Amino acid sequence: MKKIVILTGAGMSAESGIQTFRDADGLLEGHNIMEVASPIGWENNKNLVLDFYNKRRAQLLEVKPNKGHKALVLLEKKFETTIVTQNVDNLHECAGSKNVLHLHGELLKVRSSINENLVYDWKKDLKIGDVCAENHQLRPHIVWFGEAVPMLDKAIEITSKADILIIIGTSMQVYPAASLINFIKPNTPIYFIDPKPSMEESQYSNLTIIAEKASIGVVKVVNELIG
Fold first, then answer.
1. How far is CA 123 from each of CA 22, 54, 57, 60, 224, rounded to the nearest angstrom?
2. How many domains does one find in the chain?
3. pTM to 2 decimals?
4. Which of 41, 85, 138, 216 sits CB 3.0–4.6 Å from 110 for a disulfide?
């Protein structure tokens, strides 16, 4: 069975109503990046950070997967399919995808601020005073700027075995996720789906660009692959 690896970014979930995490001017929903997405920001103002993620968590609970998410599920019937996502939402899982690797963490989980192995499912607001089993303050289960990406090695291993790579809704400018394309086998077919693609087909002899939003482009590629 052929292996398909799918790399998804913010454009995958935008049509579901999830705001893109990072604006063109480098702000996160009006906040400076370092204020709400860094260890320094956490140490300086935990209440601000918690409020930021509480609002995003509440928003996530109000939205649903779009046609793009649902179309990807169909690939599992014919291929060994793995989704490697930069997104912190759970919309791939809600759509029915079984094998999803979250590079940047998960919004509906929290973890100990001291012991990163203590991770809990979480759907309500997270507040000062919410602690782990070891009595340490809980924090969002998000990979912040300046922190290591724990799942990167696994993502590289998976991508290196891909027979087909599909890239959806990402600028390919956020590292280390953007570097995954460099680990595919030679001549691996690549599909890049984005309404404003940041790559050109001349960059890779095996690259096909679909300049469409996810709900349209993903359906086209899936229909082509499953025949």
1. 23, 9, 7, 10, 37
2. 2
3. 0.93
4. 138
